[in-house]
Amino acid sequence: MSFILGVVIGITFGLAIIIAFVKSENARSKYRTELASGIAAFARMTVDDSRKIFTPEQHPSWVVFSNQQKLKWLNSHLEKIWPYVDEAASELVKSNVEPVLEQYRPVILASLKFSKFTLGTVAPQFTGISIIEDGSEGGITMELEMQWDGNPSIILDIKTYVGVALPVQVKNIGFTGIFRLIFRPLVDEFPCFGAVCYSLRQKKKLDFTLKVIGGDMTAIPGLSDAIEGTIRDAIEDSITWPVRKVIPILPGDYSDLELKPTGVLEVKLIQAKELTNKDLIGKSDPFAVLYVRPIRDRMKKSKIINNDLNPIWNEHFEFVVEDPLTQHLVVKIYDDEGLQSAELLGCAHIRLNELEPGKVKDIWLKLVKDLEIQRDQKNRGQVHLELLYCPIGMKNGLTNPFSQTETMTSLERVLKSGVEGKESSPNGGEISKRREVIVRGVLSVTVISADDLPPADIGGKADPYAVLIMKKAQIKNKTRVVNESLNPVWNQTFDFVVEDGLHDMLIVEVWDHDTFGKDFMGKCILTLTRVLMEGEYKDTFELSESKSGKLNLHLKWNPQPLYRDSQ
């Protein structure tokens, strides 16, 4: 009886402790949320709001300052403490940037280190300040716009493999950018936050010159460009957002604040059209460079398509994403010039927060001369992409895209989820067996009709027919000819055996039939991604390389996957 009583008392006491702990955590979480909301509300408070709260005697004199006066006050105090900031910041920047410099060190150099690093006597000037409420994360974010034309003393100690030592001075630095400070988490003890994260949110301008002390920079061809590229890569990879540095203020575990992958972006570079011709003889030889973060080991380059202003690439690329809310994909199209530097034909970008996770987005992006200046009236062409963003841990059959045991891209995992083989291990458990999966099947294409085709005959009519081509397999089929019509109706279905659905594409061309030849009227190019994921769909497609015209198609996919065990 005593045993039973003891058990009952113990269980009751344990439940009481659990309930008390849960209530305590809920109260603490509620307090932090209210604290974050309160601080954010104060940050948004105007002078008029403060006058309603405080009496004239209580009203602080600095509150009546305008934004410009507040920045002037902040800059004047920064100038006073700059000698101390310089000493601490110089060591901090040096310790963070130097390892990254070594990581991106040009192959022609044996070592690349700082022999001297101070930020000088000229303090930066703050030109703007803003507070961003971050209540859902329990923190406060502050952004400071800064301009700096300093007089730092920065000397790089460079050594080549032939034993030559070159002290290179970095001078004439001009910088404009926005720094982000994140105070998180908010706590109920002074100074009310556990850690500070800092990062370069936006780099608007970064200019500098390199000079060899007591020598000539041109003594080694290509050295200046290599070092400048290394410095820019090091800054991009060490401090530019989404990279952030965490400084603990109070004891605790702040690993959740560190930079971590949040997902993967799958990109299919399909084609471009109406590109600018930069060659005097022939046409441009375009290739594309794609990136989410502009550092060398994360930039992807397509193959070169020679002598073509409407290139078709149909290439896959995959990018790691750390912050889908602020990051974007950049595409730059260049004209290959052989041994000379490639010439930019145009560029475009798309924000990742415009993508719906787990859903393919088919998009044409207009090319511009400069991403910072969007008002470009000149037609530089367009680029065609398919985009798929897959967050880590997304519950739709996706697995961790960064696992070493994975061999498929994220797009392949969406299409092939559940095809991993399982084998019994000697101890009775299960082990994964990697399998190479070929997306094979039958594609049924129904060419329904076309609308508003351009006239091709003297009488203002045309005799159109459609040619269907599987690009990779080079299989062709064509419809019957519809005489004297700009809105032909075919309703013909064709079946194609597709051996590699992920990397093949369908091209539908419309031609005008003549007794002694044929005239091209337009075409549309389709990847098989959508029909692979949806199984079947009907849609209308505009004809490219044509003044007008639309094509109505119905596509259906009957999968016949092949599985081959990896060796």
UniProtKB/TrEMBL annotation:
SMP-LTD domain sequence ranges: 67-250
Family annotation (Pfam families): C2, SMP_LBD
Keywords for this protein: Calcium, Lipid transport, Lipid-binding, Membrane, Metal-binding, Repeat, Transmembrane, Transmembrane helix, Transport
Molecular function GO terms recorded: lipid binding; metal ion binding
Sequence ranges assigned to domain C2 in this UniProt record: 244-365, 423-541
Predominant place of localization: membrane
Gene3D superfamilies per the UniProt record, alphabetical: C2 domain
One GO term of the biological process aspect: lipid transport
Compartment annotation: Membrane
GO cellular component terms attached to this protein's record: endoplasmic reticulum; membrane
Membrane topology of the entry: Single-pass membrane protein
Entry's transmembrane regions: none
Family in the record: Belongs to the synaptotagmin family.
Function field: May be involved in membrane trafficking.
Protein name as catalogued: Synaptotagmin-5
Organism: Nicotiana attenuata (Coyote tobacco)
Gene behind the chain: SYT5_1
